[in-house]
Amino acid sequence: MPPEASRFPKRLARVRRSLLTNGLEAVLFLDMNNVRYLTGFTGSDGAFLLGRRRSLLLVDGRYTTQAGEQIGEAGVFEYREKVAGIAEILAGWAVTTVGFEAAAVSYETYGKLKEKLPMACLQPLASKAVNIRMVKDEDEIAALRQAAALASRSLLELLPEVRPGLRERDVALELEYRMKRNGADGISFPTIVAAGENAALPHAAPGSRKLAADDTLVIDYGVVFEGYHSDETCTFVLGQASSPFREAYGAVKTAHDRAIAAVKAGVPCAEIDRIARDYLEEAGLGRFFVHTTGHGIGLEVHEPPRIAATTEVLLEVGMVVNIEPGVYIPGQWGIRIEDTVLVRERDCEIITKTPKDLTIL
Amino acid sequence: MPPEASRFPKRLARVRRSLLTNGLEAVLFLDMNNVRYLTGFTGSDGAFLLGRRRSLLLVDGRYTTQAGEQIGEAGVFEYREKVAGIAEILAGWAVTTVGFEAAAVSYETYGKLKEKLPMACLQPLASKAVNIRMVKDEDEIAALRQAAALASRSLLELLPEVRPGLRERDVALELEYRMKRNGADGISFPTIVAAGENAALPHAAPGSRKLAADDTLVIDYGVVFEGYHSDETCTFVLGQASSPFREAYGAVKTAHDRAIAAVKAGVPCAEIDRIARDYLEEAGLGRFFVHTTGHGIGLEVHEPPRIAATTEVLLEVGMVVNIEPGVYIPGQWGIRIEDTVLVRERDCEIITKTPKDLTIL
Q1: Would you list which residues of chain A are within 8 Å, Cβ to Cβ, of chain B?
Q2: CATH top-level class for A3-130?
Q3: Residues of B in contact with A180 (CB under 8 A)
Q4: Which homologous superfamily is B138-360 in?
Q5: Angle between helical axes of A168-181 and A138-158 (0-180°, round to 10)
Q6: What ipTM goes with this model?
Q7: Where do the structural domains in chain B lie, given as residue ranges?
Q8: In which band, very low, low, confident or very high, does the pLDDT at B315 lie, cut at 50, 70 and 90?
Q9: Do A221 and A232 touch, CB atoms closer than 8 A?
Q10: What does the alpha-carbon distance between residue B277 and residue B244 come to, in Å, rounded to a whole number?
Q11: Fewer CB atoms < 10 Å away: N or C end of chain B?
């Protein structure tokens, strides 16, 4: 067993306490990020059954060796067909009341489970109940810090080379190459490098458009490191910034700063969204802020809690969330400023490292 | 509208003919690959409603501009909350019998749809019914060819530089860099570069292990080009191949060749799997062939039909599938040989380009 294996019993104990109540005898996890979180298994397919006094990782033949190495052979069961394997184990355990992740199980898979487990009482667990990864432990925070630092370092290395004439895709390629050479296991999501009017599309894919003098440049990028993601957005200018752009940048930066200043334990996520949104409304830019203010980050780049008007979660110590207000003026330019913060008792710590004052490249 | 827009009306007409039968008045598509296939919209979130005489793409505010540019503003509806938006449109259309993709809709989303559409009759469509992308049209085949050619060219460029002393991750990084520089929009999946005993794990992640003399080297890699994926696996030797390895390589290559020789319209997918599996059984390697023989490829790297014993699909002209038998000797080495083929009336065409005879690097 790897030395860091000690984190898993703690996680299992906590999840058992929170989920195996109200008569629930076992929980079936099919979301592979939850499976990884609870077991350390990093494969892309499988299932994890958590009972009151036992647990088992189920994998197909491609993953038997890897699973045995990662969690110990005793904890692994090899199936030929997943749902049949799950049914076999549950029958052996003689448990009938089984919870499942309602958001991670398709209507089709649910139908198959019902068919193979006619006697079982399958209980959908709402996202709220199975958001087991919102509060990060020390190992996770360490990985998130390393991911963020590695990404920021790579961008700062590249910036001196970013100049008019390069295509958006060249910049994205060089950034991704540097991030991986610096130790990233992968990129967190396809890097966004959007110049000028392309920056007005919040999810632009980098293309053949060449950077030009005085262009706005939005770079939204991140890495995966030991399974954990980073995600940071910087908005630059290549030369002269127009005065409407400068004003809008100042407004987005203030919205970003105010939202971050409000982050601490006990504050509702919706309140953080409201602070950023109200400020941009006041600045006359509210209608150009077309997305929510942020999201949790961890084994997934976007995970609960959403920093949104409809989120009912209160921030807790150890949550790690992104704050990313933006404004997008169709046909002209866009601005997004995004940092990752670690929630503390009375404030938060910013773990992304690239400076966010307006930078002229 | 982009010039290639003409492909979409054809696809819509075909899908209407196949799905809007038996009283079904509309189909709700939530699988974003199906949405892209039917509309050309490349965003990562949204929904598409296909009615008998009309259709509508639903997106949130992040994607309104992009969707308007990609499919024309008239075909786009912006929602604040997806399920509420879907309910609003369906109410306006006054349709009640609505199919949905049972494999792409979570149990939780289904619950929300039921709640917001109390009068609707929601009909789960089995994967079989909504496998609308199995037969590729000319545009898709062209993109798949370009993806495969671009990937193979990049690997062939890199091979002269692959030598003992490099780490697996260095090889993966350089290959990914070359693929993107050569025009790939992204990589198809995290590149596998697995040396020696690591090659015995079918889904190994490239790590810090250094290539050594006489190592086996499995490289499984691919690109995304215009949304379409490539996927090819080559197994090399860095020096001297042991005679058990040579024998096994010959067996996997023969299994691969026989399976491909059998691919043509009308043949069951299960038959192709059986041919590869039987040959490896005969060669005494059956128990080391721990996965299915292949899969379809297109907007997803793994998509229907699976080339597996349990698949009931018959091959059709225009299907594009991967054939990838392999054997994995735990603790020693692994071999996988994978090509993508286009099904034709009487045979198939191999569209991946790297030679598969045993190559000593």
Answers
A1: 42-44, 60-66, 81, 100, 102-111, 124, 126-127, 169, 173, 176-177, 180-181, 185-186, 190, 200-205, 290-291, 310, 328, 330
A2: alpha beta
A3: 169, 173, 176
A4: Creatinase/methionine aminopeptidase superfamily (3.90.230.10)
A5: 130
A6: 0.86
A7: 3-130, 138-360
A8: very high
A9: yes
A10: 19
A11: N
